[in-house]
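Field: COMPLEX_INPUT
Field: COMPONENT_COUNT = two
Field: RESIDUE_TOTAL = 786
Field: MODE = joint
Values follow.
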Amino acid sequence: MLNSVLKDAIKKRDETLSILKGPEFERIIKQAKSNWVEFSPTKQDVAAAGIDSSFNSTKFQGAELWAVTAVSVKSDGEILVDLHKHGLDSSPELASLASKMEIDACQQSVDNADLVLMDGSLYSQFLTRQKSLSDSLVNTITKKNNVVFISKTSNTKKQFENLGAIAGDIFYYNHATISPGFSKIHEDSKFGRDMTISSVFARLAESLPLIKIELLGSGYADNDFELILNKILKNSVGGYPYALKLAHNNCKISNKDLAKLASIHGLSNEIGSREILG
Amino acid sequence: MTLGFVIGESKPTVVTAQTSRSLPIGEYVIINSKEGKIVGLVEKSVVSSAALGDVNNYDETLESIEVAALNKRDKSHTAMIRILGFLESLQKGKAILPAIPPIPGTEIVKATKDDLGQIFGPENKEWIKIGSLLRNPEINSLINLNKIVSRHLGILAMTGMGKSNLVTLLAKQIANLDGTVIIFDYHNDYSGLDFPKMNVIDAKINPRLLEADTLSDVLEIREGADIQQRVLRLAFTPEVKESANFWEALDSQVQYVGANPDRKEDRHSADRVQDKIDDARHRTSEILDPDMSNPVALIKEGRLNILNVSEFTDKQANVALAYYLQELLADRKAAVNAKGGKAKSRKNYRFNTPVFVIIEEAHVFIPKNEDAKAKYWAAKIAREGRKFGLGLGIVSQRPRDIEANVLSQMGSLAVMKIVQEDDQRQIASAAESISRDLIAQLTSLNIGDAVLVGQWVNLPAIVHIDEMKGKKIGSDQNAVGEWAVAKKIDGAATNSSQDLIQKDLLMD
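Field: COMPLEX_OUTPUT
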């Protein structure tokens, strides 16, 4: 890095960090603190399944070798659903396909687990997916009402925008609190009344990182989220459900995996090791 | 029973396996290769947990333990298996490695008694049992005695790990087969053994039979004392050697040399030499005996001979050992030459059959980077003994201090617990057949466990040596116990003497 950038950074350090101090920041923090519901969850024994999907592809000479997987795994390692597809196309819609497979995995899991944990956010599901997929998702979720969306990070800026927030909501809750609990329930009906998203930022134990929990629908009470936290706490590691970690590890398609796929099809030479290895 | 499968990169000498349970180091397995059954030895065993692999703090560890216990797929058991050769060829005493590596996915099964029995316990007179395989205890571990007599043996371990037990076991077995064993007993550890075919000798030196410089060592004349050494050399004449009264003749001759009017400066040195002779005559008369016949004559053929040198100083012990080794080599050469019809004269040897000599505390007698007479003869026997049926066994707890050239001549090794890295390095460089992974296991061996490598075994083996019954040898002193007994006796003596005094006779 150029020294001039560093010198400039030193000069502007206070300005850059103004996001973390000053009356505006303090006001937001105060608001976040008042939104925080103190709650120490207690472990509740449930069979939870984690669902995640992954896709990867390598382009060569105008074509694309791709693979998509989605899995549903219980905390004890039992794989409930294992879906996969691969192909050789031009410009495949891999994100949509992965999303559809996640919903399929969810459909096949809701009857076999007490709690189904989906990796990611309902926002991204509704924002980026086709209408038909959204309908399918709503039907799946409402079948047993046991589907919860969980994400480690969030960019949403809904709750403190009017106070001049620059960062996402999760940033301020992280600075405002260290205790276990969750934020005031936030309802968002921007996708329509039948696709209202109710969300909270939650912490399972003191000083752990926050997670974002989203449910489909409106009218939830604090008690509903408290029950979910009790269920999630069991078999969570570092504040994150282990079933989701297992799902991620089981479904991820690395470049090495893609290389194996290319080899099976006899395409290693066509693609070349450079492309496969990224 | 399937233990696992070959995974990853496979080589003709080593494979990695994913197994259903952790395989103990030292366990033998069978790799069911398409070319035939291959015997492998587990040299490294690793178990990892997916949940506990990347924990950041104590609480996360506790949570991970909980989820790891639930998840059957959480643990990964990996083993590195060294390929030792095809089972069929090993059972015939030959190690043939596969030309192509076992294909990943090849099944690995537990080795059975039928598989290994023939390899570790060939039914032949020259093979004797010394223990059982550490990880397959139902299988006896036998060693080939012929190989240690012809190609020598090193027994290396920390103190208290079972060296003396193994020495005793081997020595008794050889004597039971009417073989001749000589243990050069540095600490007088073996004389109390309960064994009928044993011959305990207090080693002695006949000064008449020595060279002048060796006599100088025996008399403890300092290395730098050149004039004293010169005086002794001039005085140690053939007439003195043959004199009826050796010490008086030597003393007179030293006085005569010192009285040379042309070399008045020798006078004082001659006095010092006379003092040394006087010391030797009176203080070490038990071990320096000019009237004894050849000391080697006291060694009995077909017996376990314990040569006690505990009364000797290091220098004297070195001289004595050098003398015995030199004489034994000459004797065996004469015997072999006579049998081969090469000897011109009539029988001039004592030992008709091969002899095995065991040197305890070998680092004292065969030191690295130091000249010693015993080292010269030990090295010579290590090189030439094979031809003349003179085997050498060196025993030490400090392999790093043993001359590497001699250690590397040991065709077989028994290595027990060794912690020092210097020692491990020395062993690794001396024995090609002992791998780094096997060396790394030496720290984890328990008392009586040993890694056997070399020509006396068909395969490298980790074994538990049988414990010899009877008197414990080379064991540590029970200081606390002895103090307690001494106190009791002392107390008893005090009480009894007081009891003898009538109370009414005691005065205030």
